[in-house]
Amino acid sequence: MKIKNICCIGAGYVGGPTMAVIAQKCPAIKVTVVDINEQRIAAWNDEDLSKLPVYEPGLDEIVAQARGKNLFFSTQVDEAIAAADMIFISVNTPTKTYGKGKGMAADLKYIELCARQIARVATSDKIVVEKSTLPVRTASAIKSILDNTGNGSSVKFQILSNPEFLAEGTAVSDLLNPDRVLIGGDNTTDAGKEAIEALVSVYGQWVPQERILTTNVWSSELSKLTANAFLAQRVSSINAMSELCEKTEADVNEVARAIGMDSRIGAKFLKASVGFGGSCFQKDILNLVYIAKTYGLNEVADYWEQVILMNDHQKRRFAHNIISTLFNTVSGKKIAFLGWAFKKDTNDTRESAAIYVADELLNEQAQIAVYDPKVQTQQMYTDLDYLNTRPSAANQAGLTVHQNPYEACKDAHAIAILTEWDEFKTYDWQKIYDQMQKPAFIFDGRGILNLEELEKIGFVCYQIGSSAKQL
Ligand code: UDX
Ligand code: ADP
């Protein structure tokens, strides 16, 4: 079966870039990305490519090449579903904020709504692809909804799981050159095998065959949660060591280098930090913990939960270190934040460590001045308000946003590096120092600055995981 028409429901950080790359690499396939959010679709259609709703290096060029040819962004969800032979579900699956599983389980209401909408609208056979990260066995719920609602048994559905492994900030290169593509499907029936092959041949247009893995649906669903849990665990493991390094004159960068050269451990994902953020790690581990508990596997649940507890500790520890270093009071003191995004090269702030560090400091009545090259001002206030710690007006009063890093740092008592944006390394640090209160402190939560140079200028420096740079 040759796919000619793809619909993707959800034009977010996953759906948008993934479909742009599929469209660019498969010119014979018409790709329509739909979303109920009109503003988002308008932004994807904006002539001015700097206004795309997702910032990813290289994405604007790909959108420019494919948009209007075989890549379309639309709010006409029903029409796109009806016309497609393959439908990707790429909507958000946030942690539940109510009811059973509150604070842990994935909220599947958006997924279910999509399944019901597909069932209602479809008049021809469809391959439905789970792109969103989902709890293991969700496909059976989707299949049940598809088979039991809508136009009856005349329309046949095949469900595939095709988790997305792209990381934000490197989405385009991850999509163009993935380590692997994972496709889970029903490999016990001819129709299931045919659906798997159809999706294999889409990716096969640019991904080498040996990197396209096919498994059963449940393995594929669980592999995505497992991959994110392992990655987050590495960050929490090195962060745990960072605290020990600070007490023992070891240096976490040296330790990471030493262990990373062991090919069994590997060098990647060993950068100590103020804590991992992003929409996936915390949500997926909580989800994993919830699933384990549901099966009564309490030891498994506790084991993975510790990764989150360590991460929460790391964020809090960073904030408390700032407070204690600034003579145990930050009340009324200006503290500049360089970076608000959860990592560099993205405008995404979901679960960013910066939000939690800001929250702790605002509790102590600090005045926070933020500069981030890509995050919009309103987003920062939305992030803080979402925590529901204090009234919105108090967040407005306690935090100011600057378009210029030198302005953000002027008259500050301390600077905290929360995101590893490359441009921070190129600043005129002497100029920044001259305009700050003295003693001028830097708290490098990302390990990106050359502290020897900064110390020569006169800064008092702290770097995560480095006892040599302890205050
Ligand atoms: C992650 C997975 O990498 C990706 O495969 C999956 O599809 C989605 O979740 P993402 O959250 O976009 O991607 O970014 P990632 O690069 O994994 O970083 C997550 C967080 O961990 C960031 O806050 C990052 O700063 C932090 N991190 C990462 C560290 O603190 N140290 C590291 O060594 C690596
Ligand atoms: P992700 O990071 O997983 O891509 P996002 O939140 O960035 O998540 O994107 C998910 C998108 O899915 C949002 O733009 C949201 O409006 C859209 N969405 C959610 N439910 C539906 C639905 N039933 N139909 C169409 N779009 C939907």
Automatic annotation (TrEMBL):
Which terms are listed as keywords in the entry? NAD, Oxidoreductase
Question: Which EC main class describes this enzyme?
Answer: oxidoreductase
Among InterPro entries, the record links this protein to: 6-PGluconate_DH-like_C_sf, NAD(P)-bd_dom_sf, UDP-Glc/GDP-Man, UDP-Glc/GDP-Man_DH_C, UDP-Glc/GDP-Man_DH_C_sf, UDP-Glc/GDP-Man_DH_dimer, UDP-Glc/GDP-Man_DH_N, UDPglc_DH_euk
Q: In which pathway does it act?
A: Nucleotide-sugar biosynthesis; UDP-alpha-D-glucuronate biosynthesis; UDP-alpha-D-glucuronate from UDP-alpha-D-glucose: step 1/1
Catalyzed reactions per annotation: UDP-alpha-D-glucose + 2 NAD(+) + H2O = UDP-alpha-D-glucuronate + 2 NADH + 3 H(+)
Q: What is its EC number?
A: 1.1.1.22
Which residue ranges does the record assign to the UDP-glucose/GDP-mannose dehydrogenase C-terminal domain? 336-451
Keyword Oxidoreductase carried by entry = yes
Entry's family note = Belongs to the UDP-glucose/GDP-mannose dehydrogenase family.
The protein in question is named UDP-glucose 6-dehydrogenase
